[in-house]
Records
---
Amino acid sequence: MTAQTSDTIFQAHDLVKRYGNVTALDGADFELRAGEILAVIGDNGAGKSSLIKALSGAVIPDSGRMLLDGKPVHFHSPIDARLHGIETVYQDLAVAPAMTIAENLFLGREILQAGLLGKYFKVIDKKKMLSEAIRHMQDLKIGIRSMSQAVETLSGGQRQGVAVARSTAFAKHVVILDEPTAALGVKEGNMVLELIRRVRDRGLSVILISHNMPHVFEIADRIHIQRLGKRVAVVNPKNISMSDTVAIMTGAKNPEDLPADAHA
Amino acid sequence: MKHHLHRLPSLASLGPCIALLVAGSFFATQSEHFLSGQNFSLILQQVMVVGVIAIGQTLIILTAGIDLSCGMAMALGSIVITKFAVDFGLHPYLAVVCGLLVCTLIGMLNGALVTKIKLPPFIVTLGTMNIVFAITQLYSGAQTVTDLPDALQFFGNTFRLGQTSITYGTLLMLALYLLIWFFLRNTAPGRHIYAVGNNREAARLTGIATDRVLIKVYMLAGLLYGVAALLSVARMGVGDPQSGQTENLDSITAVVLGGTSLFGGRGTVTGTLIGVLIVGVFRNGLTLMGVPSVFQVLVTGILVILAVATDQFTHKKA
């Protein structure tokens, strides 16, 4: 199966997470390679969101270990994960709608003015934040006219763009995207898929959680299938059909019955 | 040109200015005394105490909170300042520092209860309002403190600017507005206040220590109530344990009239200054017209409901 470890950037072994009698993660493994888009799919209750929460620091697993760049890591909060270069775009986007795009991009990480004003009075450098925001959004080809407009004036796809841009501006290793196309129409959904590709092409690794199979097959380099709290298979979307993938996800088909080249 | 349109002030932020201008023009036609430097100076003097309290109230409402204890904190602050100076013979400056400290501590208590025990700000400050009122009455024996040293009355003194005499207290109030305006607009901690009020969970996820922001906001508001206490002492020339009884609703009125949203995250301290002035101009104008003060209360009530209704319609969660 997955013999390559040289380019593995983020991995988890034997993660367990229980909520009372419910076992959400039952010895789950995970492996993300450098510069790939890895889709994580699974039925409701497969432990998909618990896995993602553990990877993004939102949940502390009961046992198991995680390695980032080969070094063991323990996240106690999403901030911990962020400090390690892992950024998460939450499904509800976690933006401040009344604030401007530039402010949202730099929220909690404002660029301060050089000199005493910045150091002692934490005076922000609005000009620099604005120009950095413009540069960054242009890099990602997100077409928004003015960075000083409030996020609430944007369409759903544009807001998603802002949230993705924020995470990529600061992620050093990994961007986790939770259902980025769920609330969008066809056109805006495609726009966001394009954006995710550009993020990968800039050298970041992307973890994509999605229910949308056509989107997953269009964009993912590999697909991690989660079932009953475990990883049951990692497949190559080029060599497997959508229906077989769904069959494995729901337990209708055994992963061992797949042809060898379907595994990734 | 078109993409600059969003930078123009919205109707919501222009509304208070228009209301102030309309009210001013109306009273100018009704009384020849209204349009004079001396009268404007008087209006500023009349609003300086509630004006400074309203700055603190704005900060708290920006975080989607509310503070009912502000007036009582101010009353206790003024009793501490005057009693420490008069009864203990403490140096007036030191007495002022003690007053500011007491008010800041009340703010810290409010902030701690809101963040650590996660109680709604309305209930927390309703409780502390009564507690602080009781402490003020017990400590002062419900007696006014008189015979103050001159230093405590400095901000009630005036200087002449042409034909108009202006109190130092109004200058202090305007300086505080300028300071907090800059703080909210141009500093990272200032912007974090908006973020916490606008979407607290998002602010937390971006790494802002939201609880710490909230506690600091309540403490800063408390400090401002302490300054208001000093102004109140200077203006009245006594420490009055019965003061501060209407300042909570008056300051909330001013904040809301100034266009700050009760949902948090939207609003400006300049709007609040205009809100304070609207209330001041109405009171002053109606008094000059000889309208009984009951009607002033009536008008203020109507204005508040209008302002809150505007807020509801423009910022209702989509």
---
Amino acid sequence: MAESLSDFVTRRRPDWTTLEALLERLRARSLHLDELTRLDALYRRAAADLAHAQAAFPNTDVHRFLNQLCGRAYGAIYRAPPVSVASLRRFFLTTFPAAVRETLGYTRVAIACMALGIVLGATTVALQPDGAQRLVPPELLDFIERRELWTDQALTSHTPSEMATQIFLNNLRVTFAAFGAGVTGGVGTVLLVLYNGLFLGAVAAACFQHGLGAALLDFITAHGPVELSVICITGGAGLVLGHALIAPGERRRGVHLRERARLAVQLVLGCAPFLVAIGVVEGFVSPGTFFPWPAKALVGLASGVGFWRYLLVSGTSTAP
Amino acid sequence: MTQSTLDVATPERVAVELPIAGVGSRAMAYLIDVALLFVVALAGYFALTFLVPDPVNAVVELSRAARIAGAVAVFAALWIYWTVFEVSWHGQTIGKRLMKIRVVRLDGSPVTAVDSAIRNLLRVVDFFPACYPVGLVTMLFDAKHRRVGDLVAGTVLVREEAIDLSRFVAATPGAQALSNTDLDVVTDFLRRFEALEPEARTTLGRRLLTRLGTSPEEAATLDDAALRARLEAKVGGR
């Protein structure tokens, strides 16, 4: 004898109300152990009720209600482990360096794009000094032609330091945009990284032409190695996305893309703290003459070598 | 149900169907969040004016290091806001909570930090070049109304529905036995009685009563109050 909708609700509703209350308390993190086992039992019963409602009362509000209730309970019970200090530690000691090693090929492509950009930018400006007007922003060129390095606060007014901030922001933007642009099939990433290299090469060549080369080297030597590495790694992350989108292999495009995105975003997340750290170096160590150039070179060399050693070695011996 | 749903296969072997949030509520939630961030930024700016007399000039005069630190902080706040809220608030930001929508993974489980990071880092792509054209087009074409960030992260927004079951009371002995669908529809109609537009209410009430066995001629003579009383009697009093 089939039970009527009203009788079903009247009979089962107390359990659902209890389950709702327990879920509320689970969110507030005030659940006792015995309540937790009760929640588990009630969820299974509600799931059975849902199965019954699907068959006996499809598309009624009771059916919708049970869908919501079971959806919430399912999400609460089958959830991924939360982020903890231990999981962060594991991420930076093992997962992130391993992800970098796994995607080294992509990073190499990004490095090649960047290098190509730098060479093209530099040769263009070296052979055709007028080319600088197209590649370097006019304000920046203005400073270079007045022989004032925009990075040197002691020399000039405040505006040049604004240029340096803009360059840092540009790098920050490129770092994240290079990842996002991967969804264009990698084309956007290649263009971004290439253009960034072009810009760097053109600026460097223009500086050398106006006798500011040494000053430029003095400025970039401390933070340059790590900063450019980070751009190339996140550029590589964008290429991972792009490659997954273009060539999913024998799997469905969406499935493959989602899995590779997980790997790619690990690169971006891992790079973020290093980007902040190198921003601090760029803000405090690189400008001015407080630190002599050998000290800056040492910082640059040590951070660059240390960064790559960490990426290539960390986690290899303890990997399961 | 004509609306699209996310079908979750649970280990209990029951398929849970969660209704998927549409472009409208998603856009509204986004606007609320952005408005909030804007208000916070504005409040921060005015708080700053109490400390320094001329903030605009003060920023210009800041050292480069301080300005880089500020820029990083603002950038981080803009990105971290979404991810921190989505991870710690079970897939909801403030705007999403107000709009009663929630981010879940395709298997119905809550978003992890990695999922949330992917979808929010790719917000830039959806926003490109301004005001979300990429995201909107993707949402219109995708059956689950996902933007690019959701497609890549494997996430989807579902609606949270608060459904009141108190209208389903045990049938009183004298009441006419209604089919389950009829009971659901009639009780829902009675629950929403006050909120419905009067003309639609009368038409709908007459049709329901006709469906339950009253002759159309008789139903046409009844006014709202009488319709309500008749229907309440059919479902067994409330």
---
Amino acid sequence: MPQLGVSVVEGTVIRWLVGVGDDVAADQPLCEVDTDKIVTDIPSPAAGTLAELLVHEGETVEVGATLARISKTGRSGSHVDHERPEFHSPVVQRLAAEHGVDLGGVPGTGRGGRISKQDVLAAVEKPLHTESPYRAEAPAGQLSRMRRAIGAHMKRSLETAATCTTWMECDMARVEQSRRGAKASSLLGVTPLPIVARAAMDVLGEHPALNATLEGERYTRHEAVHLGVAVSLGEDGLIVPVIRDAHALTVEELGVAIRELAKRARKQQLSPDEVGGGTFTVTNPGQFGSLMATPVINQPQVAILDLEAVVKRAIVIEDADGNDVIEIRPQTILGLSWDHRALDGAQAAQFLGALRRRLERWDG
Amino acid sequence: MPTMTYLEAIADALREQLRADPRVFVLGEDVGAFGGAFKVTDGFVEEFGEERVIDTPLAEAAIVGAAVGAAVVGMRPVCEMQFADFVACGFDQLVNVAGKTHYRFGLAVPLVVRLPSGGGFSGGPFHSQNPEAWFMHAPGIKVLAPSTAEDAKGLLTAAIRDPNPVVFLEHKHLYRRVKGEVPEGIYETPMSARVVREGTDLTVIAYGAMVHAALEASAPEALDGASVEILDLRSLVPLDTQAILASVAKTSKALIVDEANETCAAGAQVAALIAEHAFEQLDGPVRRVATPDVPIPFSPPLEQAVLPSVERIRDACRDLLDY
């Protein structure tokens, strides 16, 4: 409130002529003030942006009181002066480009935190520990939204569950025989996944403790199997679409469902409903030749089945006469990561054993 | 080496050239019997006679016009304006005749016009100007502005020996205030810039009296030990582009100080040069300190308010150093 006359000690703001966020010029009228003698405009003492009105219309304040705050930096808010400017001087930009310096990691010592030429040169001479050692190979960038989501989910799972993994060898001769027979109809994919999934559905019916979710201390067994299938999207990441009521589907129907979901997942056409609500998950790193990959449980489920590569091995089996013979057979390793909070190792092994027997005697 | 004032060094150069080259003569108002308004040619008429130290009427157009004619026929005239301000009366002869004769007729015009310039002594609007930019804008004329006694002698010698018309700005404020060792005998100072003080954090570009103001303003003890480079242009035409750009490349910050009125002054040309050719070297805005676009007031406080002061230059230095 300026001193509007020698004897004036206070004034009443009648009307504001500008609002917060408005750009104001020097000497532009800001408000009308009644000093019980006259009504007069109060000119702006500076150019800038009106950041704050401190006196309401109708309010009477003493001479010297602050009526409003004007930000000279052109943006409203009281912290604007401390904001780090995004502008970099020409020499800073040039030096950063020449030396491959990521200016985001350079502390600024200039006015208002500005990065000065000296700051860049200091960063060139003494590379910051926070910088990636691979910056020469690839421009620095942030993780994609999907990678961040996967990362957060995986970390949460490992931090939440008491994850154990059980492995079991499995002879896949019958499964492979069945796949070869089915290829003519081309209903199945290139991997034994639909058959293994179908077998797992049957075994889950016998071991319902694994078709369950555990949220906090709330452990829920589910009647229906909503089967999550991990689908790789290449470098972009991974997504786990869910086949509803998978227990009710045939091998062929599972094969079609897996193929369709994978296709739509890669086209980013999945709806949110199709990626949630799973009760059990299967992952298939074997399609890429993996022999043993420890799966991470898809929270809040309690187990995840892992299908590895089918490879030919020389193994010892018993022939019809009860003699041990060495035979060349297609083998795989079945893995199961399970949550020791909800299950014990015996249940996991029993589940895998039952699945193994079912696959070794597959007659599809 | 003898110590001389800036004024004595100018007189020394003139005397030596008058002695060495019979084509050289001086002309101007009161240069003879009175020895010049500032006594630069004191004693000259006694040594060289009235034919070589010519008192003229109060007519600058006649002084410059006569010099152009003499130069065209092979003489080396050195004109004195009592005050640089008065050269406006000889402007046509200098800009339209002297500056263009080589281009129109292929004839050399080796003349020098000495311009006692600058303010700081309550000389008022007619006796304080810095008109160098008028001539920078006129093709065909060289423009020199020394800041030290040694350079004053060497540059005036070079100017007299130069085949082109040369405008020689001698700052009145420096006449008797600036002293220094000056080599004996004839020597030429190159028409290029000089690094007065080396520095790494900021370049201050100045000429004439402002070199001294810049030196005082940017003393390390006055600026928390900052390392400020001072570049004395010495010659405005030709302008030492290379030295300017080299210094800015080193420091990445430039402050240009000139005593002339701000608009279209020599400093504006330097600023434009830096903006165009050193953009990617800059770590701050190109700043200028100059005299506002007003005539120089008589009133001592008002004159001190408009001329670039040590304080204003120092504030600008600080602002750029902190940027």
---
Amino acid sequence: MASLGQRALRDRLRGPGLRLQTGPFVTCVQSPLAALADSLGVMYADYPVLEEGSLADFHVRLSGSHGLRRLLRPQVHFHYDGMAPFQPLPLGQAFPMFEWAMNWCVSSQAHSWLVIHAAVIEKEGRAAILPAPPGSGKSTLCAALVNRGWRLLSDELTLVRLDDGRVDPLPRPVSLKNASIAIVRAYAPAAQFTRPVADTVKGTVAHMRASSDSVARAMETARPAWIVFPQWRAGAPATLAPVTQARAHMRLAENAFNYSLLGAAGFHAVGRLVEEVRTFDFSYGVLDDAIAVFDSLLREDA
Amino acid sequence: MCSSPIWRLAPGQRLVHRCHDGECVLFNDLTGDTHLLDPFTIALLDALRATPQPAASLAALCAEHDGGPTSDPADPAELEACEELLADLAALNLIEALPC
């Protein structure tokens, strides 16, 4: 995208749409919002952009308010294939809304995969899947790991292929919330972040740019080796505790967006996944200790 | 319901399951849910797939599983426990009582 230049980027967004490739998906993005164009230009600078007219999996449009509202209380509206599935948000939340909408497109449409609400990272060909509810420290841990030698496959959506159980990468900016923004900034001062946006439904949010390497290797699948359910606790030592396969199955099912929709195929996909990996609960309080544990997993299973 | 219903596997259930280390997960074909069960419950469901039976017949299986002696007629406590389990499985749409 960087080679397009800012003017061409804005023209495509205002006109026929920007065909943005993220992992296996192409999204046609249309938007007249200059601030969104600027954020996309920075956070997606390394991503492939397809020619105008190329087929897209998702067609999205983010637009501003019209009339008096545009002046008094400007908002951003999201449209998917002409529909408006979400309430508009304050205009300053355009980029977070874009990211949330992209997640929604995949989690609600991409049923050729088992889609798990989980971060996933890779090193030496082996992937660690980190499923967890909000507030567990999943994205903070993911951001730390990808700044210490692990490759980002996704911080939010793990795409498990139904035919062979491998993970397809979907590297996009890492979403950070509230206190974790300052923690990750301090931990990875060289990383690039969006300006924090306050007062969203998730509190204050900022996004960390995915590394150029993870974007360049977005078509390089990985074999799952570990499922780690993280839980951050202040001051807690980094501790792994095994989780039985059947219980890991139940917890993965709870964290998968389309498990029920896939029916028996989802059951078998999760069943195979837990049989092929080691499964753990992981509590941690210090990022460096957590990194050391992940690197020791890698050595143990070498 | 009859005083002593005959139970069978609910039509449509295939008992698709996986067991690991003394715990099983079962896919419910009718609801799409996944249940965490013990291997004995899977064996009981399998028995009902093979032959519809009343709780009294299954009580022997329950007693055997609990390591106690089997008796005929079934021990009342064992029978009550078995009936409770069958009611739970029926509530999950895994089994059903045959019409009287």
